[in-house]
Amino acid sequence: MSFEEEEELLAPFKEQAEKGELVEVSAIESAYREAVGHSIGTAQIYYVLHRHGWRKVMPRSRHPKKASEEVIETSKKLKQS
């Protein structure tokens, strides 16, 4: 596929990502496989995404300003008194 063809293939996924929705590589892989007409490896999809400037963004596992466990336990003890 040419760069422009890949760009057209990724356009609906880019719109979905810009709306804040999650985009899964498996969905992009199946669309790419249909466009190419044969099976491909998952690494090929990651090469395509890298070539188009996509990056992996994941939600944080915890809030950065969350209180430590020690502070939480101390506040629980203060509320019981």
Shape, please? rod-shaped
Instruction: Report Rg.
Output: 21 Å
Q: Uncertain segments of ≥5 residues (pLDDT<50)?
A: none
The tally of structural domains comes to 1
* End-to-end C-alpha gap: 69 Å
Order of helices and strands: HHHH
How would a crystallographer describe the biggest sheet?
none
Q: How would you classify the helix and strand content by structural class?
A: mainly alpha
User: How many E-type strands?
Assistant: 0
Q: Tags for this entry?
A:
0% strand, 62% helix, mainly alpha, 81 residues, rod-shaped
Question: What topology emerges from the helices and strands here?
Answer:
Elements: H1 3-18, H2 25-36, H3 42-51, H4 69-80
Helix pairs in contact: 1-2
How would you characterize this protein structure?
- The chain has helices at 3-18, 25-36, 42-51, 69-80.
- Helix 1 (3-18) packs antiparallel against helix 2.
- Helices cover 62% and strands 0% of the residues.
- By secondary structure, the protein is mostly helical.
- The model has no long low-confidence stretch (mean pLDDT 87).
- The chain has four helices and no strands.
- The chain has one domain.
TL;DR of this structure?
By secondary structure, the chain is mostly helical. The protein is built from four helices and no strands.
